[in-house]
Structure formats: structure tokens, C-alpha cells
Amino acid sequence: MNEFEIFQLSNQIYINNAIYTIAVILMTTLAFYLIRRSNELNFPTYGKAILTLFCSFPIFFGLQVGAYFSMNQKNTSFQLSELKEMGKEISTIAESYISNVGHTVAEGPATLMPDLPYIVMYATISVMFLVSIWGKAPASK
């Protein structure tokens, strides 16, 4: 594969990742709406359990989308650094990409693990879901 093909494949993966991110955002919005409705209707315990199960889906898919995004960046950097190691001429943009991402042949192909900001963000959203579903609402005046 040459540099153009690597960047072309990477850009196609970014487009897919953006579509999945929109789906995760819509699922998260729907989850927050359902939580609000469950509090308004005073859901029974089994309803809250089902809602908790539903709210785990956007968290799982969000972490998965974040992991694929991170893996795409690292594997693109890895593939470009492989070209460089084979002695092929690469552009300054590819050099810059390798230095910015920092994943080279020495690290090997990337694994499916989201970066720390994704983990923190979705852990925060998980806590928001759980507290909103199972926590007591403040007394209104």
C-alpha cells in the first residue's frame, strides 16, 4: 500500500466513525429523554432496571466508537511509519502525522482500547444516567 491509499482508507474510516458518533449522540439524547419521562411518570423498579439496561447501550457503543477512532489514528501512523522503515519516500504531511500521533513500527499495530478522555467522558455519562434513574429527586418548593 502506498501513502495515498493509507490516507484514503483512513479518511473513509473517519467518515464511518462520524456517522456512528452521530448515532451514539442520538441514543444518548434518547436515553436522557427516557430518564426524564421515567421520573415524571414515577417508574416502578422493573421499569428503572430496563431503563438502566437501555442506558448501557449508548455507553458501550460510545466507548467502542472511541476505541475505533483511536485505533484508526494509531494504525494509520503505524502504516505510514512502516512505509518509512521500508525506505520508501513519504511526504512531510505523513512525517507530521507520525510525529503527532506517535505510534510507530516499534509499538506494533494498535489494539481496540479507547483513549483516556473517552473513558472519562463515558464514565461521567454513566454516573449521570445511574444517578438520574436511581437517585431521589429533590423536593420541589
Specify the number of helices: 4
* Oligomer type: single chain
Instruction: Tell me the structural class.
Output: mainly alpha
Order of helices and strands: HHHH
**What amount of the residues lies in strands?**
under 5%
Rg measurement, Å: 21 Å
E-strand count: 0
Low-confidence runs of at least 5 consecutive residues:
none
In whole angstroms, the N-to-C terminal distance is 67 Å
The dominant shape is elongated
Describe the structure.
It contains four helices and no strands. The chain has helices spanning 3-41, 45-85, 92-101, 116-134. The model has no long low-confidence stretch (mean pLDDT 93). Helix 1 (3-41) runs antiparallel to helix 2 (45-85). It starts with a helix and ends in a 7-residue tail after the last helix. The relative contact order is 0.15. Helices cover 77% and strands 0% of the residues. It is mainly alpha-helical and 141 residues long.
